[in-house]
Amino acid sequence: MSRKPASGAVVTGIDFDRWAVILCKPDAVDRGLVDVVLDRIEGAGVSVRARTDLVAEPWQAHVAYRDMLSNPGRFPADLPTRIDNAYAGQRVTVALAHGGPDIHARLRRLIGHTDPTKAVVGTIRGDLGNDSVAAATGGGRLVRNLVHTSDDPASARRDFGTWYGPGRTLKVSDFDRCSVILCKPDAVERGLVDAVLERIAATGATVANRQEITVQSWQAHVHYWDLLVDRDWFPDRDIPACLDETYAGRNVAVAMAYGEPGLHTQLRDLLGHFDPTLAAPGTIRGDLGDDSLTAALTEKRLVRNLVHTSDDADAARRDFGTWYGAGRRDLLIAELPTQNTPADAWPHLET
């Protein structure tokens, strides 16, 4: 099995400048308003097709709300629970909307404000909504606002892969100089976290803000959203189940690596090939890895390859919000040690 292409390459043949995904949420389904919502969208001169009714899986809701989940400083601490309560096992309807290059902006104006009480007359939420942000906040739940449409072409690509499945045809100044290091469960269980961080520090990067945490399911889903969206590249494995088995409820260690522009590429080269048997000597996976893609495929699981570092500045931003919480931006500008410190002296976050 060859390495998967960059995320997004699987979804071909669709011009997402002109296509958007419509998600009729569980409250629209429960209130019998799906036909009304889709008729309103078609009445605005937008072509609606490929309607599909389905039961939402937890990972789909996690990926759909990944920007909120990876920015917990702005949202309630129990946001993952609220999302699960609203979506997991609930019926939703999705459809595709086709129009001109302004399709995304047109649809967002048509559906109206997030809070139905603030949505103007003539919008879907303004005319059909029966909830409010105030009521939702008081009830410890998500606001029921009937419908979502893709924000822009990039969101449409992600929404399409999330709700329809890939293969169907029809960017950060602070983070240029820092990367999130994720020492995976196998590194923790084999006692290799210190060794991994020492290897990274030896490159000249400053390693700090180490933290041990127990992984929540949503964190694994947000972190590996591309595997979930492009999961048809892995027909031999149930990717959502593999992620939950590998990560949920298990311990990982995270740390920050600080350096100069180019840090992301430097660290990815240091890690080596994702299959430890193909990683070169001198790389972390090549020297410390004890698993193989062949074994993982045979056992229908994810390969155990010890460590992840952020691919680029955008990934570092997402990784930071996922594993530390976006509210900890002080870690991005904190004073750093003047030299790398040994593993037993790396500062740990207070918990």
TrEMBL record:
<dbReference type="GO" id="GO:0006241">
    <property type="term" value="P:CTP biosynthetic process"/>
</dbReference>
<feature type="domain" description="Nucleoside diphosphate kinase-like">
    <location>
        <begin position="21"/>
        <end position="171"/>
    </location>
</feature>
<dbReference type="InterPro" id="IPR001564">
    <property type="entry name" value="Nucleoside_diP_kinase"/>
</dbReference>
<comment type="similarity">
    <text>Belongs to the NDK family.</text>
</comment>
<dbReference type="Pfam" id="PF00334">
    <property type="entry name" value="NDK"/>
</dbReference>
<dbReference type="GO" id="GO:0006183">
    <property type="term" value="P:GTP biosynthetic process"/>
</dbReference>
<dbReference type="InterPro" id="IPR034907">
    <property type="entry name" value="NDK-like_dom"/>
</dbReference>
<dbReference type="GO" id="GO:0004550">
    <property type="term" value="F:nucleoside diphosphate kinase activity"/>
</dbReference>
<feature type="domain" description="Nucleoside diphosphate kinase-like">
    <location>
        <begin position="176"/>
        <end position="333"/>
    </location>
</feature>
<keyword id="KW-0546">Nucleotide metabolism</keyword>
<keyword id="KW-0418">Kinase</keyword>
<keyword id="KW-0808">Transferase</keyword>
<dbReference type="GO" id="GO:0006228">
    <property type="term" value="P:UTP biosynthetic process"/>
</dbReference>
<protein>
    <recommendedName>
        <fullName>nucleoside-diphosphate kinase</fullName>
        <ecNumber>2.7.4.6</ecNumber>
    </recommendedName>
</protein>
<dbReference type="InterPro" id="IPR036850">
    <property type="entry name" value="NDK-like_dom_sf"/>
</dbReference>
